[in-house]
Design the sequence.
């Protein structure tokens, strides 16, 4: 991680960093708090200061999150050294796990779409004592069980 996160102190304020990176100020503070983004240098007045390296790391985090990578996955990618430094095999493993998670979500969404489509088709739209849409949402009705699948990060926690 040191290659991509070496401290740079060009004196950017958190507001300017937010503008340059497209990341909300509160999100930047959160990333620092949860140690995804390194603790910034402080100016003499105590304010955070950032440089091009921090900007690059923050944009890397933002893009990773846009692609659906969890914070644990982002941490793992940064620990590998980030762009230009990471082992392609290790990055591939993280990306392959993420791709599998996406495929599972797509499968779940397709099942949900079929169930909801069938239920909506049964709905007449008139006032009735029983509504198929409300029935599938009501816990007192026959619940739809969805098997628990591994959560993102379950297999990757050992990389922390």
Sequence:
């Amino acid at each position: 991680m040191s290659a991509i996160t070496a401290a740079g102190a060009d004196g950017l304020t958190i507001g300017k960093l937010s503008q340059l990176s497209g990341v909300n100020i509160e999100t930047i503070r959160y990333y620092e708090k949860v140690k995804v983004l390194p603790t910034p240098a402080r100016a003499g007045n105590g304010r955070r200061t950032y440089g091009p390296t921090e900007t690059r790391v923050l944009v890397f985090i933002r893009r990773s999150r846009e692609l659906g990578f969890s914070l644990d996955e982002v941490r793992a990618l940064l620990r590998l050294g980030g762009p230009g430094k990471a082992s392609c095999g290790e990055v591939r493993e993280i990306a392959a796990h993420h791709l599998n998670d996406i495929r599972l979500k797509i499968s779940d969404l397709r099942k949900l779409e079929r169930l909801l489509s069938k239920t909506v088709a049964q709905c007449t739209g008139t006032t009735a004592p029983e509504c198929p849409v409300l029935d599938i949402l009501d816990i007192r009705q026959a619940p739809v069980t969805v098997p628990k699948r591994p959560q993102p990060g379950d297999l990757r926690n050992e990389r922390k």
